[in-house]
Amino acid sequence: MNSRWAAELGERVCAFALVFLLGGGVALGSPKVTTKAQAGASGGAQQPKVPMAPVNVPPSQQTIPTVAAPPLPPVMTMMGPMTGTKEACEGLRSLKIEDTAIEAAGVVDTPRFNVPNSTAVYRNLPRFCRVVGVTRPAIRFEVWLPMEHWSGRYEVVGNGGMAGVVNYSSLAGGLRRGNATASTNTGHANLPGEGFDASWSMDKPELVEDFGHRALHLTTVNGKRLTREFYGRPAKHSIYVGCSKGGGQGLMEAERYPNDFDGIVAGDPAYNWTHLYAGAHLYYSQAVLKDPESYIQPAKVKILADAVNRACDGKDGFADGVVNDPFSCKVDLSQIACKEGEDVGGCFTPKQIEVVKKIWAGSKEENGKQFFPGLLPGGEGGANGWQAWVTGSAPYHGTHWRAADSFFRYMVMGDESYDALDFDYNREHDRKMLDRLAPMLNADDADLRPFMKRGGKLILYHGLSDPDISAVNTINFYQRVTEIVGPQTPGFARLFLAPGMQHCGGGPGPDAFDAVAAIQRWVDEGTAPEKIVASHYTEGVLDRSRPLCPYPQMAVYSGKGNAVEASSWVCKVSGGLAKK
Ligand SMILES: [Ca+2]
Questions:
Q1: Does residue 58 carry a pLDDT above 70?
Q2: Is 503 a catalytic residue?
């Protein structure tokens, strides 16, 4: 009953295209990274965590503004109050913004901030003016404005999962960079702790529109206005930073509102939303939940991960647990298949082998066209790997299923009793119900020429071991941009693939890197990133660094120097990407 798309069987042959390279030094012995992007769901437990936004910012960037502070203008504005002061902050309460109520505006003097209705606390914050507002109908937003040492920049941060909360973690990150920073809940509140909750969308198409693009755009515009009023001058530059849903929001902005930002960082982007939900979240779930025999017990994920590493880890020259080139990785799954009479607890049954093949192959339409790409081999293990997303701790606990279940029940079908396992994209009614959401949710128009022409810069990144959204999906987007824009593409848009990184962080590969500093340099100085150095920490200790390279290059060992240091690696086109 679940033959939605004919899954391609047969050996997984990773023959896409890519590559990376580069070298660069990272100071070994840096302090512990604390803002490694938080990858999604915890092992399919009851409360999956949503990938909150971005960010991979090294600790050095977290507490010290990266840019020397320009002097604040000691002038009275025509508006009255002194700019950048307590009075100016509190004066923002009376600012008139269309359809918007400013609920609060005041200075946060302590270095810590307690998140409302939460136990979360952010420390080591500089003094800031905190503005809280609501734009009709229910777009809640906050803007945090540094009281001193403003970088002159304006930053908007994105969301994770189904959003529904202001992203305080990323607000804190932007503030520490010295940026005036804004975040929105995208127009609805989620059920507490349920990051993929879509029940708010039931029969509320206007809220879906807000979630899809309107809330972030209006917050961007309104936050710019507040920034200008507070400092008495507009920001020199505006940037956007987000991962997952946040990455998709970044592409939505570049496509639909190209004048909003000078620079955009879009990580692991959920951009073709309806395809992602039907062709990945649901498709992978339909495979693993098809019948009790198809379910892969979480303890078996390690068997698969080990088989992948045996086949492909060492091919890049280093058996370090990271498959650098999943596009050249072929895994003979018969090696983990149960032998006659073997205890099935330690091997894969024929049905389980079929599930792995389906997930690697991805979903297809009836005509054979790829609907959404499959996951790449590598990095399946660990708490944020397949165990979190694909298998869950038990059937129906994987995050792919949790996401699909709520989305199809409430947003697609508007029927609380709907069972998403029954969805079939090849059935006309089902396809229509899904596709009607595409204009509101999808950001898959690869014609980024308006954004390029206004001088916009785009950094895309994606973890090659992402068990949520296949990195191939982002490669496909970048290739489409290149087809439209041509050889000028790297002059304004670059894609960095991160080997061994899972969803927005985590995994065996280096996952701590500062894409924000790279976009700021590109925007401020016009210097395009030739590489971005990524670091890997084990229990807070830096043990490896590696350059991330602009697609289609990949990092290749130079042949000299210590392989754990980024300076020993160069960026060049090779491996599976070179063959594409
Ligand atoms: Ca390796």
A1: no
A2: yes
Q: Which of 275, 462, 503, 536 is catalytic?
A: 503
Q: Around Cβ 532, how many Cβ atoms within 10 Å?
A: 23
In this predicted structure, the answer to whether residue 466 has a pLDDT above a threshold of 50 is yes
In the chain, the percentage of residues whose pLDDT exceeds 70 is: 86
pTM of the model: 0.87
| CA–CA dist 286, 180 (Å, integer) | 44
Which member of 260, 313, 466, 511 is catalytic? 466
Q: How are beta strands 370-372 and 12-13 bridged, if at all?
A: unpaired
Do residues 196 and 162 lie in contact, with contact meaning Cβ atoms separated by under 8 Å?
Answer: yes
Number of helices and strands in the chain (H, E): 18, 20
pLDDT at 202 exceeding the cut of 60: yes
Which one of 170, 238, 244, 294 is the catalytic residue?
Answer: 244
Contact 210, 187 (CB under 8 A): yes
* Residue among 350, 388, 371, 469 at smallest CA distance from 424: 371
Residues 289/295, Cβ–Cβ less than 8 Å:
yes
Pair of tokens at residue 76: 């009275």
Question: Minimum mean pLDDT among 9-18, 182-191, 200-209, 236-245: which range?
Answer: 9-18
Q: How many residues does the structure list for the chain?
A: 580
User: What pLDDT is attached to residue 4?
Assistant: 36
Give whole-number Cα distances, 47 to 40, 42, 359, 559, in Å: 11, 8, 24, 46
In 32-62, which positions are buried (b, 16+ CB within 10 angstroms) versus exposed (e)?
ebebbbbbbbbbbeeebbbbbbbbbbbeebb
> How many angstroms is it from 269 CA to the middle of ligand 1?
25
Q: What is the 3-state secondary structure (H, E, C) of 496-558?
A: EEECCCCCCCCCCCCCECCHHHHHHHHHHHCCCCCCEEEEEEECCEEEEEEEECECCCEEEEC
What is the residue-averaged pLDDT of the chain? 88
For residue 268, give the nearest of 545, 15, 548, 495 by alpha carbon.
Answer: 495
pLDDT of 226 higher than 80:
yes
Higher per-residue confidence, 77 vs 266: 266
Alpha helices in 257-312 (DSSP H): 273-276, 283-288, 301-312
Kindly give the distance from the C-alpha atom of residue 510 to the centroid of ligand 1, in angstroms, as a whole number: 12
